[in-house]
């Protein structure tokens, strides 16, 4: 194994919108906003790179005028929900020190990923990455995995992919990439020890 590929959301950065919404809105509002924003076609289009944040705000406030101000507040500030998962970031540094090549493969909005790169210097240890909004394709579409493999000349049999979605792991498996399915807050160190990488 030479290459370790990391998802970002809930692997390197915690993304739990329910907790954020709970702090700022009443329970009925929270439930509505979860559906209106995070289960919307617009959210998918942000990941696809076919919409920017202002486009999503315009579209969603038009559809849901009774939540106009709340939608704007959430979408203008949603990157505050993204908090480093310290233990997994430390493991990434440990893997780098051991000589593994680190890469990113994530469904992520174009504007948000630039904010994260500027905010957190641990992204500097990654040699490259493929972000859905920049490629106009999202996991688990096999095309996004192929883009990563070809762009960085990676042998899939020498590559391990860590993601919180089983469907995303299975898509990588079909291309020969070994995977660790890591549900939110599962123990990454234990999983890596099981396969002899730590």
UniProtKB/TrEMBL annotation:
<dbReference type="InterPro" id="IPR036412">
    <property type="entry name" value="HAD-like_sf"/>
</dbReference>
<dbReference type="InterPro" id="IPR006439">
    <property type="entry name" value="HAD-SF_hydro_IA"/>
</dbReference>
<protein>
    <submittedName>
        <fullName>Uncharacterized protein</fullName>
    </submittedName>
</protein>
<dbReference type="InterPro" id="IPR023198">
    <property type="entry name" value="PGP-like_dom2"/>
</dbReference>
<dbReference type="Pfam" id="PF00702">
    <property type="entry name" value="Hydrolase"/>
</dbReference>
<dbReference type="InterPro" id="IPR023214">
    <property type="entry name" value="HAD_sf"/>
</dbReference>
């Amino acid at each position: 194994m030479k290459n370790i590929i990391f998802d970002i959301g809930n692997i390197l950065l915690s993304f739990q919108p329910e907790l954020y919404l709970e702090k700022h809105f009443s329970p009925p509002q929270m439930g509505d906003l979860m559906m209106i924003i995070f289960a919307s076609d617009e959210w998918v289009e942000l990941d696809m790179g076919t919409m920017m944040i202002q486009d999503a705000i315009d579209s969603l406030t038009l559809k849901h005028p009774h939540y106009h101000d709340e939608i704007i507040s959430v979408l203008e500030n949603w990157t505050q929900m993204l908090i480093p998962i310290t233990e997994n970031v430390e493991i990434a540094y440990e893997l780098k020190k051991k000589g593994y090549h680190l890469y990113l493969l994530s469904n992520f909005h174009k504007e948000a990923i630039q904010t994260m790169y500027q905010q957190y210097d641990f992204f500097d240890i990654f040699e490259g990455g493929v972000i859905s909004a920049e490629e106009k394709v999202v996991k688990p579409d096999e095309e996004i995995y192929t883009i990563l493999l070809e762009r960085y000349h990676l042998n899939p049999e020498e590559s391990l992919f860590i993601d919180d979605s089983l469907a995303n792991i299975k898509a990588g498996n079909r291309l020969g990439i070994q995977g660790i399915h890591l549900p939110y807050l599962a123990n990454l160190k234990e999983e890596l020890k099981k396969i002899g990488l730590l």
